[in-house]
Amino acid sequence: MNPPPPHLPRREAFRIAGFSAAGLALAACGVQGQKAAPPKADAVQDFWAKQTKHGKVVFANWPEYMPEDKAPLEKFKEATGISYEYKEVIQENADFFGKADPVLRAGQPLGYDIVVMTNGIQLQHMIELGYAVPLDHTRLPNFGANAGQKYKERSYDPGSKYTIPYTSGVTGIAYNTKYVDEDITSIESLFDPKYKGRVGMMSDAQEIGNFGMFALGIDPEKSTEADWKKAGEKLKAQRDAGIVRKYYDQSYIDAVAKGDIWLSMAWSGDIFQRQLAGEPVKFVVPEEGGTIWTDNMLIPKGAANPLDALMLMDYLYQPAVAAELDEFIQYVTPVPAVQELLREKAKTAKGEDKKALEDMVDSPLMFPTEADYVKLRTYTTLTNQQQQVFNPIFQSITQA
Asked: Which residue(s) pair with 342 in the sheet?
């Protein structure tokens, strides 16, 4: 087994919530279009009853999210007779949505049957504007049988009406053990004056906003405008005290690995890659809480092959297929059975392959513990109007 390449390309453009310049522009002016009414159950049933298998599916995804040999897709083709086009065309949520919005608003198809988007503002827009096709769960038996319950109960898409997870990751704290000689357990370490000038924080508004709220004991999913302002004040005090060296995008990982900063907000997948490379970095979900984000599969409005798409989405929830994907991706799988499958594979593997598989199986970065899950929350759900309040609070800190 050759180790997969680091998953850095898809992180370099604020991949989590899409707050690039394009994303800020969209948020500032609001998104055109009327909020769509939730579809009626009968209409959903009628839509799917009319669909037929066309023998083709076009899958739009992020880079480094499918083995190079496309083995899961090849096996799907063999099992179903459905051919595929796989396109690594999603580099950042805001940029993708910015291009998709005028096309979908005009009633035109995107040319993709499945797209993968991270939970956050842009995915919320896709759902609210009626750009995502409601799913027929009677045609998703593998999802129903094999998805973990936590991946069926997501605040941003209750009941998985429009999306099902592709993979997930966690935002927590990473620290360099060459310079930090204590076990970091609390988010307050990021605010500790003894680490003045050696702390990294993320530049993304939703990411840093969540950590400001965690530090105050606030659940971001239930937060109010008053909570955002309190979190902003705490983060401003941290900045003004000189504790933060820099507000980072993807570059935080090199900074903490080199010792330019000693501890930082961090993404789980990045740290796991560095641990496999033998670098002295640890990752922890702080006791106050961490953020779980999910990249989600959806069928865009006007897709040419929705039934074929739904079949592929469900196929990826077979445990053996999900294990093959997770072995390559090395993030958090929505299929709990994957851990035991990889454990069994490790028993018969040899040498470096065996060590790599054992590291995956034992890593809470790929398989969070129940104690970790209890502490994990997703982002604040924001209306267009609320974005006008939320964004400036945290951007005034990171962009000052």
From this structure: none
